[in-house]
Amino acid sequence: MKEYKKLIFIIVVALFFSLFNLARAEVLINEVQVKPTGESFIELYNFGSSQDLTNWTIKRRTASGSEYSLVSASRLKDKSISANSYFLLVNENYIGEITPDTMWAKSYDLANDNTILLYNENENLISKISWGGVVDCTSSCPANPPEGQSIQKTSNGSWVSATPTPGAVNSSLSSDSNNSNNTSSTSVTTEIKTKTSEIPKIKTKILAKNFSFVGIPMIFEANATGYSNEILSYGRYFWNFGDGDSLEVKMSENKKFTHTYFYGGEYDVTLEYYQNYYGDVPDASDKMIVKVVEASIFISRVGEEKDFFIELSNNTNYDADISNWILSSNGKSFTIPRNTTIGAKRKMIISPKITGFSILDRDTLKLLTSQWETVFDYGASVIKFTPKKVASATIAQTPSLILPLSKGETSKVDGVNTDVQVSAENLPASAISSDVVKDNPIRTYFLSFILTIFIGASAGVVYFIRQKKVVSSAGDDFKILDE
């Protein structure tokens, strides 16, 4: 009986840990910043050996229990986190100073009263963190963090709000380590201030996504801040896009612009800021890697006359932001609203009640980028076939039907006028290849050329023979007279 109870206990424990899938987790959520939006991030930390994050995902759960994808598997494809290292995930609108490892779509973001859940490639829950008024915490959840602060994991596994440290040791862990070594509160405060404070300097930042599609313009923007974190508006930028192209921009003309990559690959984009327009040494610089993949975003299907819907498909392994893209036809256009994303290998169907298009727009329907660059021409992709009537062309191939005609008569076979001229394009292949004698212009020219040479040669021979007969010999000029 005792062995029986022991067995039940082991089974219950095994089921408990398999249910939560946390027993062997080595990659954990370590820090989360919610506000402000441009600085929100999620930081992972790997306590074990190097871990491939391909097919891992991160989801966000609201206070009501609704769950949404935050970081799709495509964003973590071919990504990994080294042993005892950090992995930083940010919104595409991130303006922080630390270079992220990957980004999530700008249309998604963190909010108060949320839960973040980390799943591995087998969709097992690896780690989670909740804050604010949610019911996911085993005990009380940490409060919603104040703007400018993050929720950080402490050495005892609890969560506290502290100064953000993306990609670095948590402020809370620094404090715990100092306290465990009996360091005075003064030295703790000094270390935290030394870590979080920085020497004032000029900074510049690339504002762009970290991936794009081949042939589709990518939006770039930059900013520069001074010693007091003020926005600078003088000097110049120098861009190098890593594909052989570059651009120099005056700060007075600084605005969003686009650059197009024509081949897939990874490109190192660098930005240099010169406070002195004529200076040679940059005062600040930034760098990012842009991954460019083949574009496969197209109009995959349209409806019929009664319901002319338009279906858009994303056949890539990446989420496609099609904000402000345009559907155009017959002088009409429909602009896709901002924050519109088609997930990897997914489709979107738009009703004609929204676009205003009809079946009459099908043959000239196009999908354009926000810069009016054509991405897909649906009209050109549709193969049109219109069968043509054959006007009894086979009559010409039926000798038994040829009848002698008197002058001015027109033959008719089965009521068909055989004098009708049928265009070759309306004839079947059998009629075109029938035994009808056709004029060959090359053959005609060749025969004419040979005939001309023959006639010329003949004329020359005749002339030569006649000349030979006319010319007299020397003895023919006189004759001897007998006296």
UniProtKB/TrEMBL annotation:
Phylogenetic classification of the source organism: Bacteria, Candidatus Nomuraibacteriota
Keywords, comma-separated and alphabetical: Membrane, Transmembrane, Transmembrane helix
SUPFAM superfamilies for this protein: Lamin A/C globular tail domain (SSF74853), PKD domain (SSF49299)
Annotated Low complexity bias: 170-190
Record organism: Candidatus Nomurabacteria bacterium GW2011_GWC2_35_8
Annotated LTD domain residues: 18-133
Segments of this protein annotated with the region Disordered: 168-192
UniProt cross-references to Gene3D superfamilies, sorted A to Z: Immunoglobulins, Lamin Tail domain
Residue ranges of the TM segments: 445-465
Annotated protein name in UniProt: PKD domain-containing protein
Pfam families associated with the record: LTD, PKD_4
Keyword Protein transport: no
Domain PKD: 237-271
